[in-house]
Write a structure and sequence with these properties.
A two-stranded antiparallel sheet has the order 1-2. 29% of the residues are buried. α1 packs antiparallel against α2. The chain is mostly helical. The protein is 74% helix and 6% strand. It has one domain.
Length: 294
């Protein structure tokens, strides 16, 4: 006799709603990235507000990141954590932090490919395929990263203090921060410096896909990264920790574009350098023992 399948009867509405908003922001980001044109909005405090569709797409991913931080906290505060919530969170993360950043990077770089002149057709095809490969690899690595997290994740709260591999929100944040800074820089020139625009476009074509590729590798790696939300918001902290958080908020208020780049890239480099130092520290005693035995 076949065992009865479990049927989901009740769900926690508030955490699930916030999680779904995460996925909705990712979908909206994909929509705006596909427009690939300037939008002109009229706001109540500013008659003319020029913003590119890429900028809106980037901030939609940042909003999804905030939603991703809130849903878990809400579930734990209301004591409504469940397997359904964890699975729903991973599925929406695939959209917001897997597909959306890769698509945004691809569409932004495509805007420059038509203007850049390559020496031959073979080089042009190689660059285009490399960019496409980088976007696909990022999306697939994000899927693998989230699937691995679901399998290895434990319900114990202490298991949520570190991640094995770069978290998908952080990887998406790195890609998005470069896109937003790029759009902010171009809006500042206002088309007055066409030669600078061409130079910046060339840098974008080569650097952004490479950054996306590196984030793909770090996501599926075993490098340990701290869970910032749990480590910063849980329990009592020292006065220097409070001042550091306060200074970070001031930096964001002063220049959010640079703060995003420094924040996300600093997080990535922190985990990478810490892993290198720990690996070297483990190998040095082994080398000394091998030298002494000889």
């Amino acid at each position: 006799m076949k065992p009865k399948k479990k049927r989901l009867k009740y769900i926690a509405v508030l955490p699930a709603f916030v999680t779904l908003m995460n996925g909705a922001c990712g979908f909206i980001s994909i929509f705006f990235a596909s427009l690939n044109r300037e939008l002109r909005w009229s706001l109540f405090f500013r008659a003319d507000f020029d913003v590119s569709s890429f900028t809106i797409a980037g901030y939609m991913i940042i909003l999804a990141l905030i939603m991703d931080m809130l849903d878990g906290r809400l579930a734990r505060l209301t004591r409504t954590t469940s397997s359904f919530g964890g699975q729903l969170d991973s599925l929406t993360d695939v959209i917001s932090f897997g597909v959306a950043p890769a698509f945004l990077m691809l569409k932004l770089v495509e805007t420059y490919l038509d203007y850049l002149e390559f020496e031959n057709l073979g080089l042009s095809l190689l660059i285009e395929r490399s960019i496409f490969f980088s976007a696909i690899l990022y999306a697939m690595c994000a899927v693998v990263r989230l699937a691995r997290f679901n399998v290895e994740n434990a319900e114990d709260e202490s298991a949520h203090m570190n991640f094995a591999g770069l978290p998908t929100p952080a990887a998406a944040g790195v890609v998005v921060s470069f896109v937003v800074l790029h759009e902010h820089f171009l809006s500042g020139t206002n088309g007055r410096l066409p030669e600078l625009y061409d130079t910046f476009g060339s840098i974008t074509v080569y650097v952004l896909p490479l950054v996306t590729f590196l984030m793909s590798i770090l996501m599926v790696s075993r490098i340990r990264y701290p869970h910032l939300a749990n480590q910063l918001l849980r329990g009592k902290k020292t006065l220097p920790a409070l001042l550091t958080i306060f200074a970070s908020v001031l930096f964001i208020m002063w220049n959010i574009h640079l703060a995003m780049v420094f924040g996300f890239c600093g997080y990535v480099l922190f985990g990478l350098f810490r892993w290198i130092i720990i690996t070297l520290a483990k190998k040095l005693p082994l080398k000394r023992k091998a030298a002494e035995s000889q």
